[in-house]
């Protein structure tokens, strides 16, 4: 019997580490799995973590990330909702919730998450920028413009942001505002081709054809294969009655895969 008891003590010693893990241990191991993109293994560990501590918001957040990477959107959404229920002041959770909804195709619902963040932190420029982008995608251009403008106050040299605001400005017929934003970008970065192309298009829209041509000239100096610039420069030349130049641009655009047949036929291009 003494020998048996000794073996039992040794056996229990080996079992002790197995049963001694707490929720923090499981969470740490799960995060290590997440870093290695082992999402299913992370979920298994997080399940155990939550069994140990059912109100561990960090575990629900981590499990939401793992499920999102496995494209299990409903499960990810449920987990991040639980994390927010436990801790409704953590802005990372609202951001994660918004991302999950965007990827699942629920952009309007994602806007609600960004709105909650801004209620807690009104000057969060990145959130204003993100919500503005969603408004723009939903064609709610005036709301997008308001959010972008709020973000520009904090990020006045963000070229992508200014370019996005220029597009929504044009959509709400604020043509000068659209041109001004592109000009601001070009002042920062004269080689920003997107800003030059967009400004050229805006100039064309307001019938400032020489200015449009000048912008497209600059783009084509940097990138001779920019088809949009050939198309719109051709249209601007046409408005100035420079038909030979227009035809030459449309022919080049056609070589780059753009359909300019209608304009070439209408203007009897050779």
Question: What does the model show?
Answer:
The structure is a single chain. The protein is mainly α and 270 residues long. The protein folds into three domains: 35-118, Tetratricopeptide repeat domain (Serine Threonine Protein Phosphatase 5, Tetratricopeptide repeat); 123-173, no CATH class; 190-270, Alpha Horseshoe (Serine Threonine Protein Phosphatase 5, Tetratricopeptide repeat), CATH 1.25.40. It is 79% helix and 0% strand. It contains 16 helices and no strands. The chain has helices spanning 2-19, 23-35, 39-52, 57-69, 73-86, 91-103, 107-120, 125-137, 141-154, 159-171, 175-188, 193-205, 209-222, 227-239, 243-255, 261-266. It is elongated and about 80 Å long. Mean pLDDT is 93; it is low at 1-18.
Give structural attributes.
disordered N terminus, elongated, Serine Threonine Protein Phosphatase 5, Tetratricopeptide repeat, 270 residues, 16 helices, 3 domains, mainly alpha
In brief:
It contains 16 helices and no strands.
Please outline the helices and strands.
Blueprint: H1 2-19, H2 23-35, H3 39-52, H4 57-69, H5 73-86, H6 91-103, H7 107-120, H8 125-137, H9 141-154, H10 159-171, H11 175-188, H12 193-205, H13 209-222, H14 227-239, H15 243-255, H16 261-266
| Cα shape | elongated
List unreliable stretches of 5+ residues: 1-18
- Helix share of residues? over 70%
Number of helices: 16
- Which CATH class of the largest domain is shown? Mainly Alpha
